[in-house]
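re: ur question from yesterday

yeah so i grabbed the chain u mentioned. its 76 aa long if i counted rite. heres the sequnce exactly as i have it in my notes:
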Amino acid sequence: MPSQSENTNTNEKQWNETEIRDLILYAKHLQQENEDLQAKMIMMNAKLNNEEAKTKKLNNIIKLIYAKGNNPYNSN
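ran it thru and got these C-alpha cells back, copy pasting raw so excuse formatting
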C-alpha cells in the first residue's frame, strides 16, 4: 500500500518547460496591464484635480461678482 507522501506526489501536477514559460509570460502581461491601469488612474486623478480647481476658481469669481453687486441678472 502506498504511503500518504507517495499518494500526494502522484496527484501533483508536473509543469513542463513550455507551461512554466507561458505562465511567466502571462504574469508579465498581467503586471504590464496593472502598470498601464495605474498610469491611467494617475492621469485621470490629475485631470479630475485640474477640473476641480477650475470649478473652485469659477465659483469664487461668481461669488465676487455677486458680492460686489454686479449681478448681470438683477434688473435694478
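noticed a couple things. The chain has two helices and no strands. also The chain has a mean pLDDT of 87.
anyway ttyl
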